[in-house]
Write a structure and sequence with these properties.
By secondary structure, this protein is α+β, with helices and mostly antiparallel strands. It has a single domain (8-163), classed as Glutaredoxin (3-Layer(aba) Sandwich). The chain is 25% helix and 18% strand. The protein has helices at residues 45-56, 79-90, 109-117, 156-163; strands at 12-14, 20-22, 30-36, 61-67, 133-136, 142-146. The strands form two sheets. A four-stranded mixed beta sheet has the order 4-3-5-6. The longest helix is centred in the N-terminal third of the chain and has 12 residues, at 45-56. The two termini are 28 Å apart.
Amino acid sequence: MEKSAETAYGFSAALLDGSPVSLDKFRGRVLLIVNTASKCGFTPQYAGLEELYRAYKDRGFEVLGFPCNQFGAQEPGPAAEIGAFCGKNYGVSFPLFAKIDVNGPDAHPLYRFLKEGKPGIFGTENIKWNFTKFLIDRQGNVTGRFGPATEPKTLAVTIEELLDR
């Protein structure tokens, strides 16, 4: 199922506690999927991601965080440590998943799908750093890719447009 999924809803991943979740659970919702890290210069974006989540969750919006340790070893801790850090420092209440790879041969199938759907600058597919963001419309299609320096609040208008479709 996962290698040939046609939408983001065709994938599954484990939450921080290890329990599997089918992304079909989010069918019909607008998703912002982000590879995260706790020891990165962009880590304070957790606050902005949480603000977006709280502002729009009742309208059909979800933020899905995927911790990744592939960039400067900036997510070295175990799942319990990641969850505690995000909760204590940023009040994160959106779903956080178990650590994954986003590049290379062990890249999670969801991230292969996202990168194929919206390649980066000059058509490169690889994720360049932590906090790369992908927007998914209510039909499960990748509609946008945003670099790590893109502040979450700047995506509000685009999110609203997707929610109003």
